[in-house]
């Protein structure tokens, strides 16, 4: 009797999630495997259809060691993400803390800060960057004045220049993260802070000892979210190379597939690094 | 000498500094920071709006930086023609509203299934749902493209609709998670009462759970719509120029402009593409979403609290 009831529940449940299982197999699982398989082939599109020729690791070898562009681009992407993700998450946290102060008109600020999430598409942002709309007057001067290139290692100097130049872009990518932190902050129990302040804890102390640990799950979520958003945003030059290779008969879809897999693996490494770092911080306490 | 009593001093101190350090000075400081950050956020928008109204003389004149000498609408007229604005707008609505609606419905069904029923292997399946959020579309797009090409769906909105209907659209994992969290918070007692009255699982879902989840539906639809609207990588590949979107038109703006207004070296400079026209085009591409945001901003900024997606 009980087994029959269980079976019926399972079948009903499957009738709800069945569409997802089919979709996952057809549109995610199969393409993932096929991309992997294509990445080991030289792919040509002929009149009769797709011709594949197994070439082993050649595509990967070419991409990493021979392609003059891809190697540089992926290293830059890795370094930029490593720097920009903590900056975005920290900024989102600071703004969320400010917005959590009980003030008149904070709803308006929240609306303004979230606006970029709505309007930011690749081409819109590209136009704004190209026409100089995202460079605050003065920041360019700071970059030139400090002459970072002379005193600092090149990669670090490039990164600082990148951070300053894309300052507005950083703000524009923090909307959702800000809301996630804000929701977390609003759930915190006010009485704990009262107790802490009676025990003589300053606001500064209670931020580090109470607020931050309570927000740790949200920090992890935001790190993951930011890495994914930053990676799949259409202005990421890596995506551009994948797309170009796909249509370029010189490279073909096999090569493009290899680039896509390298890019995915680098992204997974980044995700693992950030989740690991956030966990370390938690257990190190 | 005016003698000020200690009580007055204390009261003044309290107003300025507050009891918990949330007094006037603190609030003013927070206001100052919020305004400063707000200005930085909106700076590109101000820049875009002012430049889009400048004529060629204003662009060259170093004295004109923030306020154009007049409202020069010609930039918009040109940008509208270059982007084929009216037709593109409706096509863009088609390829964002429709997939968003379908994706929302399928995410609700799937999310409900995960929230309510005991299914063997559910944790693994749900982990895979979340994993689909991390998998970049670029890694599945080549086989998907080939698949759609074989089915003759390239250039058709169905290349968006079919994955969306099966819970594999843009960021589907996120929307399934929203509904999962939402339906888990709904008490089971109501549904059980309906079940005893003999309603089947789908009837219970459609008549009892869906009406309760209206906020989740609105929020999912809005986010999904915006993300479909702004997508360009997959749009360029799957829609193949047969269905146009405003972001794609903006991407090809320079080339389309050159085609429509060929540069003539003997002609005055006004015919050439300048940043004012580009900014007008960018603003035009943004306006539909700005209008949507103006009317629905509460649903956006309160989305996280209302769906309880961060969990309890």
Please give a structural write-up:
The complex is a heterodimer of chains A (285) and B (312). By secondary structure, chain A is mostly helical. Chain A has two domains: 2-54, no CATH class; 65-120 and 173-283, Orthogonal Bundle (MetI-like fold), CATH 1.10.3720. Chain A contains 14 helices and two strands; from the N terminus they run αββααααααααααααα. Chain A has helices at 2-38, 58-66, 70-99, 106-119, 122-130, 139-146, 148-151, 154-165, 167-172, 175-187, 190-198, 203-232, 237-247, 252-283, and strands at 41-46, 49-54. A two-stranded antiparallel ribbon of chain A has the order 1-2. In chain A, α3 (70-99) packs across α14 (252-283). The radius of gyration of chain A is 24 Å and the shape is globular. The N and C termini of chain A lie far apart (51 Å). The model of chain A has no long low-confidence stretch (mean pLDDT 85). With 312 residues, chain B is mainly alpha-helical. Chain B folds into two domains: 6-52, no CATH class; 77-307, MetI-like fold (Orthogonal Bundle). In chain B, 73% of the residues lie in helices and 0% in strands. In chain B, α2 packs across α16, α5 (85-116) crosses α9 and α7 (137-151) packs parallel to α13 (233-239). The mean pLDDT of chain B is 85. Classes of the chains: A mainly alpha (285), B mainly alpha (312). The interface between A and B is large, with 93 and 91 residues.
As a whole number of angstroms, the C-alpha radius of gyration of chain B is 27 Å
**Main sheet summary of chain B:** none
Shape type of chain B:
flat
Kindly report the name of the CATH homologous superfamily of the largest domain in chain B. Answer: MetI-like
SSE ordering of chain B: HHHHHHHHHHHHHHHHH
Calculate the mean pLDDT score of chain B and round it: 85
- The string of secondary-structure elements of chain A, in order, is HEEHHHHHHHHHHHHH
Named at the architecture level, the CATH assignment of the largest domain in chain A is Orthogonal Bundle
Task: Write down how many β-strands of chain B occur, each being a DSSP E stretch of 2 or more residues.
Answer: 0
Structural class of chain B: mainly alpha
The tally of domains of chain A stands at 2
